[in-house]
TrEMBL record:
Heterodimer of HisH and HisF. PANTHER family: IMIDAZOLE GLYCEROL PHOSPHATE SYNTHASE SUBUNIT HISH. One of its GO terms (molecular function) is imidazoleglycerol-phosphate synthase activity. The keyword Lipid metabolism does not apply. The active site is at residues 79, 181, 183. One of its GO terms (biological process) is L-histidine biosynthetic process. Its main location: cytoplasm. Keywords: Amino-acid biosynthesis, Cytoplasm, Glutamine amidotransferase, Histidine biosynthesis, Hydrolase, Lyase, Transferase. This is Imidazole glycerol phosphate synthase subunit HisH. Pathway: Amino-acid biosynthesis; L-histidine biosynthesis; L-histidine from 5-phospho-alpha-D-ribose 1-diphosphate: step 5/9. Signal peptide: none annotated. It is found in: Cytoplasm.
Length: 201
């Protein structure tokens, strides 16, 4: 069973529907007892970094997420949910993140319009189980203005936009993130979620 964390940020239903389409039982919850039963955890998110972190604190979710991370439960962050996995974000103001991944979130420095919105192709940086079912140059759907500046060892895939490499998939041990929306990325997104399903014991 996968728990999709409900912290009042983003369209939870579309993420839940995407998992249900691949046969994964999901529960949308912020209840600690339910989260402790999860075989996998998903952090969705649309909005701003400080609001997301404020909501995690308000709903007392930071400690339980760290507990589950330390227990080795696979965690997948999507879009803003990926960004708050990092040490800090610079959106609106400097704000501390969960610190599960190394690096920080800053406004994209690109020679093109922001937000980066639409379909873009993935370039692989290194192998990872999350990309085992897809091919390099497959297209996924992005909507964001801020990006992760991440150490090379945690970068799994990127896309090219405005003359820059934009972080697309990251991972460190059992913590993973997609800057794009797999739930809106058609067959490719479905294959990424299937790969996450295979990591769930």
């Amino acid at each position: 069973m996968v728990v999709i964390i409900d912290y009042n940020v983003g369209n939870l239903k579309s993420v839940q529907n995407a998992f249900e389409r691949i046969g994964v039982e999901t529960i949308v919850s912020r209840d600690h007892a339910v989260i402790r039963q999860a075989k996998g955890i998903v952090l969705p998110g649309v909005g701003t970094f400080p609001v997301a972190m404020d909501n995690l604190k308000r709903f007392d979710l930071m400690t339980i997420l760290k507990e589950r991370k330390d227990a080795g439960i696979p965690i997948l962050g999507i879009c803003l949910g990926m960004q708050i996995l990092f040490e800090k974000g610079m959106e609106i103001k400097e704000c501390k993140g969960l610190g599960f991944l190394d690096g920080e979130i800053r406004l994209m420095e690109v020679d093109d319009k922001i937000p980066h919105m639409g379909w873009n192709e993935l370039c692989f940086h290194q192998d990872h189980p999350l990309i085992q079912n897809i091919k390099e140059k497959d297209f996924v759907y992005f909507v964001h203005s801020y990006m992760a500046y991440v150490p090379s060892q945690e970068l799994i895939a990127y896309c090219e936009y405005g003359g820059e490499k934009i972080t697309a998939i990251v991972a460190k041990e059992n913590v993973m993130g997609c800057q794009f929306h797999p739930e809106k990325s058609g067959e490719v997104g479905k294959k990424i979620l299937l790969a996450f399903k295979e990591m769930i014991k």
